[in-house]
Amino acid sequence: MNKAHIDINWENYPSDETPLNERNLNKMDGSIDIIDDRVITLDTTKATKAEVATLVADVTFEESTGIITITKKNGSKITIDTQMEKIAINFDYNPITQQIILTLIDGTKQYIDLSALITQYEFHDSDTVAFYIDKDGKVSAIVKEGSIEEKHLEPNYLAKIKVEVAKAESSQQAAAKSEINAKASENAAKASETAAKTSETNAKASETAAAKSATAAAISETNAKPVRHPPVSLQPQPQVKRHLPASPPVPP
Predict the structure, then answer these.
(1) 244 membership: H or E segment, kind and range
(2) Are 121 and 131 in contact (CB under 8 A)?
(3) Measured between alpha carbons, how far is 184 from 192 in angstroms, rounded to an integer?
(4) Do 31 and 4 form a contact (C-beta atoms < 8 A)?
(5) Which alpha helices (H) appear in 88-154, and where do they start and end?
(6) pTM of the predicted structure, to 2 decimals
(7) Residues 132, 117 contacting (CB under 8 angstroms)
(8) Could you read off the pLDDT of 195-223 as tens digits, one per residue?
(9) Residues annotated as region Disordered (predicted)?
């Protein structure tokens, strides 16, 4: 809302800056008219005493009890119990009694029984999954060995397994064929080795026979050669004189 009146700032005589004329007086009338309209509007739209009496005059809060007190203009009061003292500030669990213990803001405790909630659950083994409970009461699940089938596998993973199986089968067939070829090569090598040994034996026999033939030929050659005797000399042989050894002297 804007101001309705603008000050003229009247000046005393002998100043003629603010003459008391129609223009300045009409400014004042216009401002008074606007203010009058606003007063009428305010009077017609203002709250009645009965309405004001129900308005809030004050609000108080009691921390120890959690109660909010609202005081109205007519003096009446309204209290709102937030039960803040019932708010839990801590909790604990008793495994023996299977109870949750709530500690409230006012120091009191409340007990919540969980025994019925805990015992109503049962775990049953399936063909694939087995359950077991440890000493702390914790339940764990394991997958049984050999229980996973193709229907349990993710499609892409199953496809990869089938591809690898096909590769393994192909490798197995290639390995079997290689084994057959290796055995054939081994048999051929053994046959070649046997033939080589036979050839070696025959060569040794031929060598022995050749040696015997050479020996026989040498003997035959020796026997075939004429025997030459040294020439006999007809000249007289010189006579050899033999001297007897001298006898030792006889002592006197």
Answers:
(1) none
(2) no
(3) 12
(4) yes
(5) 115-119
(6) 0.29
(7) no
(8) 888 888 888 888 888 888 888 888 877 77
(9) 177-252
